[in-house]
Design a protein that fits this description.
Number of domains: 1
Bound molecules: 5-O-phosphono-beta-D-ribofuranosylamine
CATH class: Alpha Beta
Strand content: 15-25%
CATH superfamily: Formyl transferase, N-terminal domain
Order of helices and strands: EHEHEHEHEHEEH
Strand order of the largest sheet: 3-2-1-4-5-6-7
Length: 186
């Protein structure tokens, strides 16, 4: 059984949650940063930090075949827990089954509200007074696994999706490391 404290963080873009997870790691170590975008800003940051990285473009590869390559890299680095942090790919059923109960994701809404995209615009549109973010276990159904933690952010009068997103992102950076530090001890 791989050590749950050996964490891989998967990203596709700027990687601000990844940075928070790296900087606030207490009970886990970041064994690998993986990305389907070799040019992702977060990958450059991880390399600067001398973290192990794995990148492979997913374009043109069959979904499950890609996930098998990714899974092999995770095994090679003896990863026990996977933290998705802006990883813009829906994982194959094979991968989710293979890593069942060991994949976490951060989602910018108070789940079960607003699964999927455009969460902030949808919260504002609905007239919600409170928005936020959630960390959950990844299952086959999108954004539907067990919620491990939530952080609330007040919606201000005249908020735009961009302004709200900025404040929610700051809350994400606090919530995700906190939940992951607890999760690896379960
Ligand atoms: C965050 O908004 C997160 O909630 C969502 O993807 C975004 C990733 O941002 N899952 P970053 O790459 O961590 O800055």
């Amino acid at each position: 059984m791989p050590d749950p404290k050996r964490v891989a963080i998967l990203i596709s873009g700027r990687g601000s949650n990844m940075r928070a997870l790296v900087d606030r790691a207490c009970n886990y170590e970041v064994a690998l940063v993986g990305s389907n975008k070799a040019e992702a800003a977060g990958v450059a940051w991880a390399r600067d930090r001398r973290l192990q990285t794995w990148t492979r473009e997913s374009k043109g590869i069959d979904k499950e075949e890609y996930d098998r390559l990714l899974s092999a890299a995770l095994e090679e680095h003896q990863v026990g827990t996977i933290a998705l942090a802006g990883f813009m790919r829906i994982l194959s059923p094979w991968f989710v089954e293979r890593w069942a109960g060991r994949i976490l994701n951060i989602h910018p809404s108070l789940l079960p509200k607003y699964r999927g995209l455009d969460t902030h615009a949808r919260a504002i549109e609905a007239g919600d007074g409170v928005a936020g973010c959630s960390v959950h276990i990844v299952t086959e159904e999108l954004d539907a696994g067990e919620v491990l933690g939530r952080a609330e952010v007040l919606v201000e009068i005249g908020d735009t999706p961009e302004r709200l997103a900025e404040r929610v992102l700051a809350a994400e950076h606090r919530l995700y490391p906190q939940v992951l530090n607890e999760f690896v001890l379960r």
